Amino acid sequence: MNKQLILSKRPEGLPKADTWTLEEHPIPKIKDGEILIKQLYISLDPAMRGWMRDVKSYIPPVQIGEVMRAGSVGKVIQSKNPNIPEGTYLSGTGGVQQYVVSGGKGWYPVDPKLAPLPTYIGALGMPGMTAYFGLLEVAKLKEGENVMVSGAAGAVGSVVGQIAKLKGCKVVGIAGGPEKCRYLIEELGFDGAIDYKNEPIRDRMKAEMPDGIDVYFDNVGGEILNTALTRIRRHARIVICGAISQYNNTEPTKGPSNYMSLLVNRARMEGMVVFDYAKDYGKAAMQMGQWMAEDKLKSKEDVYEGIENFHETFLRLFSGEKMGKLVLKVDED
Amino acid sequence: MNKQLILSKRPEGLPKADTWTLEEHPIPKIKDGEILIKQLYISLDPAMRGWMRDVKSYIPPVQIGEVMRAGSVGKVIQSKNPNIPEGTYLSGTGGVQQYVVSGGKGWYPVDPKLAPLPTYIGALGMPGMTAYFGLLEVAKLKEGENVMVSGAAGAVGSVVGQIAKLKGCKVVGIAGGPEKCRYLIEELGFDGAIDYKNEPIRDRMKAEMPDGIDVYFDNVGGEILNTALTRIRRHARIVICGAISQYNNTEPTKGPSNYMSLLVNRARMEGMVVFDYAKDYGKAAMQMGQWMAEDKLKSKEDVYEGIENFHETFLRLFSGEKMGKLVLKVDED
User: Fold this and answer.
1) What pTM value is reported for the model?
2) Most CB contacts within 10 A, which of A43, B18, B238, B328?
3) B270 touching chain A per CB within 8 A
4) Contact A108, A73 (CB under 8 A)
């Protein structure tokens, strides 16, 4: 049987247990040209909260009754497609379910001998690509700049900071709690870390980067973004990658009231969607893989188990109770 | 005697009569290398409201007791500077006063035979330069794009719209009242106009540009900017030039809560300060002058008289009771 997590109700605010229903259906039969993928790891990402909203966005919303969309890594266990032999490991958007039938489109081979499978939905997957293209293509990062990143201990933020360090920048991360802050500095080599749950953000931003911020990579939005706006330097670039603090809002979002700092500082705020860079994923993954092999880039995944535990695990994205990339293991290899 | 308008008090909200004091002082004597300028036209600009605030910005604030800063056009009536003969007309930042002594730095010769003097603080002055560089350098306008501009009947907005038309774009302006809207379409050749005082903005934006906005040139901020954010197209550029709706706020500014549209649309919001383009003013003015000579670009100034009337005239910037560039004539040529 194939356990599938179905979106059963659009949540207001934080998703609740009844947002989804876990259903069991027979594993589908494959036809000529198709493959059957047994999913191993499911990617849990803040963007998924956006996909649940019934609004026009960069991707159509998940419909009620559909399997919840999610990135994943799996293994081909049956194949009627001569190009994809059984035993191939693939990464794609398999959704929150145990088995997927596909013609192969949108699935990319990954090699568990080069990196652990969860890394392909972490630093070598969408979060890593987001960090890479956000910094290098959107922000057009230059050596020696001051980089600040919010959600710094998360899947994207942790890679942002590490790439910025590799590019010769000063890096300060914003994260929740002393443990994460210690991790940023001691394990990932950040120059500084701000604990937004326990420290006065504006003062700490000033103390960590007295001469201001050149690149602010934003994953959280809200008051932290608004405060960062008061600390940008001339010609700063703010990359709008996400706004996790706002995703479960039931009240209207508060906009960044300090946006006129963009004028004063001739700065820009620019949004990005990683899918736009798909044609260059390969190149980026090669560079990132190289850095990982040289131990210059670390990927950290926080792996939980069991598709039954999807809901509780998903909520860790918003409570912050996780370290690095949040992954749900749904089956043994 | 030299009548000078002194900033006597920092206003909260809209400036009041006691924000300034009109003082009379002897006309200063000039020394070797200096010139005495009799000011003829004073430029009244929304940016002046910002210069009165005691905060760090792109230019130091005007201090209490100082002559209020303002752009101006005047005539050299005494000269001990061999490079600037008597009778020369100059444009510079002479402040709200009748006479200025200067070494000449920051003053540029203007020719009343080529254009009326007030035009040199209008389309051929800072507002025109702002429009020119904002569209062409910041927004990197492309032929055929959809351009929307707020404060469209103002000094900057009216030039933005006309340049965009000259560049083969579709142009819609936002202005207050039917008279201004008629003016935009009938006199300046805009494709459409939205009367924000009397029309539902979102619906009208949609009706005028059903396929969305490529370049939004913002002079007003507030709810109109926030609504425009819901109407941008992919890769849109929002030029942050001003936020006149917010300058007299006594409550905290409301930020653009729809800023996540920047992400969805891979768009950017970028601030600008015209002074950054000073080295290219000459080139731009030549192009603009050419367009004016060919009757392809109109400069409209709304000229009021008398330095005594500065306060009432200045308030027209915020009430909108003016058409085009607001100018105060302070003396006869």
Assistant:
1) 0.94
2) B238
3) yes
4) no
- B255 φ/ψ angles, rounded to the nearest 5 degrees: -75, 165
Are residues A113 and A13 both part of a single domain? yes
Tokens of B222: 């507030």
Q: Do the bridges between strand B301-305 and strand B325-329 make them parallel or antiparallel, or are there none, so unpaired?
A: parallel
ipTM computed for the complex: 0.93
Q: How far apart are CA B213 and CA B233, in angstroms?
A: 5
Distance CA B221, CA B246 (A): 7
Domain span at A77: 2-122+299-329
CATH number at residue A154: 3.40.50.720
Same domain (yes/no): B59, B176: no
Gap between the Cα atoms of A71 and A96, Å rounded: 8
* B58 in contact with chain A, both atoms CB, cutoff 8 A: yes
Q: Which of A187, A184, A154, A180 is nearest to A325 (CA)?
A: A154
Q: Which residues of chain B make contact with A265, given a CB cutoff of 8 A?
A: 58, 271
Q: Is A17 an interface residue toward B (CB < 8 Å)?
A: no
List chain A pLDDT tens, one digit each, 333 residues.
Answer: 999 999 999 999 999 999 999 999 999 999 999 999 999 999 999 999 999 999 989 999 999 999 999 999 999 999 999 999 999 999 999 999 999 999 999 999 999 999 999 999 999 999 999 999 999 999 999 999 999 999 999 999 999 999 999 999 999 999 999 999 999 999 999 999 999 999 999 999 999 999 999 999 999 999 999 999 999 999 999 999 999 999 888 888 889 999 999 999 999 999 999 999 999 999 999 999 999 999 999 999 999 999 999 999 999 999 999 999 999 999 999
Asked if the Cβ–Cβ distance from B266 to A276 is below 8 Å, we say: yes
DSSP β-bridge partners for residue A75 = A38, A89
Same domain, A160 and A109: no
Judged by a CB distance cut-off of 8 A, whether residue A2 touches chain B is no
In terms of residues, how long is chain B?
A: 333
